[in-house]
Amino acid sequence: MKDVEMKMLERAKALLGSGEVARVIGWKKGEFYFDPVPASFESVEELSDFVYNGFCGANLSKYLIQMSKKEGKTAIFLKPCDSYSFNQLVKEHRIVRENIHVIAIECQGKLDIEKIKAQGVSAVTEVEEDGDTVKVSSLYGETTLNKEDILLVKCATCKSKTHQAKDEEIVLHEMPESKNNRFDEVEKLEAMTETERFAFWKLQLQKCIRCNACRNVCPACSCIKCVFDNPASGIAAKANDSEFEEKLFHIIRAFHVAGRCTDCGECSRVCPQNIPLHLLNRKFIKDIDGLYGEYQAGETAEGKTPLTSYTEGDKEPNDVVDGEAK
Amino acid sequence: MQEVTTEKKEFVPNIVAFCCNWCSYAGADLAGSSRLSYPANVKIIRVPCSCRVNPSFILKAYQQGADGVILCGCHPGDCHYVTGNYYARRRMSLLFSFLNYMGIEKERTRVEWVSAAEGQRFSAVMNDFVKTVTALGENRKLTDLRVKEGE
Fold first, then answer.
1. B111 in reach of chain A (CB within 8 A)
2. Which of A191, B71, B95, B119 keeps 20 to 30 A from B24, CA to CA?
3. Are residues A284 and A262 in contact, defined by beta-carbon separation less than 8 angstroms?
4. Which among A203, A248, A288 is the top mutation candidate for probing chain B, defined by the most B β-carbons within 10 Å of its own β-carbon?
5. pLDDT of chain B along its 151 residues, tens only?
6. Which among B55, B77, B97 has CB closest to A321?
7. Interface ipTM
């Protein structure tokens, strides 16, 4: 990963130095090794903080909504899964494609610091990825962990390692496709009884503190005025007044991105309460696949989404259960 | 010793019916002028088209104490705006399946196509839906405690 980082830095320096782009969106060092934060670099000097490591899980594409409307070109580093969100934003005319220079970068799956901590390793100072294992250095010494055990939820079920949009590419190592079993957990829930499902979601959703992080991070949630910000909606409160509100919030949030959600998994990654929000989005994806044909949002920057198109022979809502007509 | 009776009041569900202006609302009108009966606990809300109904309308109805929500529109192909009900059909298919996934009774929400000439059908649909919801009982899973309080 170190060589990729070097190459990226080199390109960023060249692009900024030559004045080809006005800014580069990437990650900069956080307080610790494991918390790099998305950042916009506007000069070569600022790049001294530039970083790309195993913890750069954040999807940068949403920043383009603001950045691509500024003067001058914007260069951005996109991992394969981020490029889906990028396409979706182009499709919805939320970003100005001509003002963007996309640098497609290598991704071998990003790591989840919480999972590393759960393995008993704290104060991480560096990680070195080596195939299926990761050498984790901490203040207390070195440990080798299984990569599979410490991947982010979204990376453990990676949908693709192919970039859907790019102007240039920095891929130095092979990126093996992982087994895409992202609907397994959805199916498990579907197999439960109604009461069990209700209990499961009640338990999960009651953890919600309505911090709105899932909404704010979501590249598909790009409305200028959000329904949840409307004080008259009765659901704009920070804390939930009743059980109903948490359900309403999550049903509507998931519905608003149905057919547009690329399954980038950012919602679950940022949730401070660890609610498996991706399972809500994946349910819609699975149902759409089953009812209206397989559809992956963000695969192209053109065409209609399942909810903005129809066929005369669509199934009747009363008959539909779990993506098929009864 | 005095006998304690726990006689319950008979459950009468609250039903919200979203009816499209061009077909189902006229169908309800026809049912009325034809002297056909349908339960008085069905509250009709007129909407310009079935696709005007946003999922949050349905959830809001449950929040405010509805026990069942039914959406009525023109038959597919007969929409006044040509394609509105096709979009509504897709949205509702996904929403119903999703509510079921959340563990909420699927039968509480329904879509029926009723044309302006189908007064008879309107009455039959409403009678049947009220029967279904009565059998399901009170809506407890999607309700706001503040609304039900003090009942």
1. yes
2. B95
3. no
4. A248
5. 566 666 667 889 999 999 999 999 999 999 999 999 999 999 999 999 999 999 999 999 998 889 999 999 999 999 999 999 999 999 999 999 999 999 999 899 999 999 999 999 999 999 999 999 999 999 888 877 666 544 4
6. B97
7. 0.90
Do A74 and A22 contact (CB within 8 A), yes or no?
yes
Domains in chain B, please, with CATH?
15-141 (3.40.50)
How is chain A split into domains, by residue range? 2-110+160-170, 113-150, 184-325
DSSP string, B56-124: HHHHHHHHTT-SEEEEEEPPTT--TTSSHHHHHHHHHHHHHHHHHHTT--GGGEEEEE--TT-HHHHHH
Gap between the Cα atoms of A77 and A8, Å rounded: 8
Both tokens of B40, joined, read 């008085």
Q: Which residues of A are less than 8 Å from B89 in CB distance?
A: 310, 314, 316-317
The arrangement of strands across the sheet holding B42-47 comes to B42-47, B15-20, B68-73, B109-113
Six-digit token string for B47: 């909407």
